[in-house]
Amino acid sequence: MKVYNLGCEQQHRFEGWFSSEEDFLSQSDRHLITCPTCDSPQVHKLPSAPHLNLSHATASTSASSSASASTSTSAKAQDTRSDLAIRQESALFEMARYMLKNTEDVGERFTEEARRIHYNEVPSHAIRGVASPTQREELAEEGIDFVELALPARFKESLQ
Question: Is the pTM of this model over 0.70?
């Protein structure tokens, strides 16, 4: 099993699991690998460090130790930024899952349904859908509250 760090042209990072290098190349050539965030088929492998078991290594000289310490500090800072980005993305996925589970998809009828709810023509309930910039402006002028949330096409499928 090969596990690769992957990225798309929008700088989204994710992990891909493949049975072999050939499997990855085959799927990549056929554009079968897409970014889970933006659904882009422009995916590439990112550099990654192999896992090294250095428990048997001996102590280095102080010069190489201090060089390692500065490299390690830099790597830790990079890892912290990566961890933060991963946690933020995870929180966005959780929010999207919650929203999809707890709202009715009214699609192109969003503005019509939002007005019906606002003017008490139908019982109040949570909806989601699409609206053009002009339609959103009209809703705002009428005092109808809504939240804009752009979700990738991937969210229309079931989420694991």
Answer: no
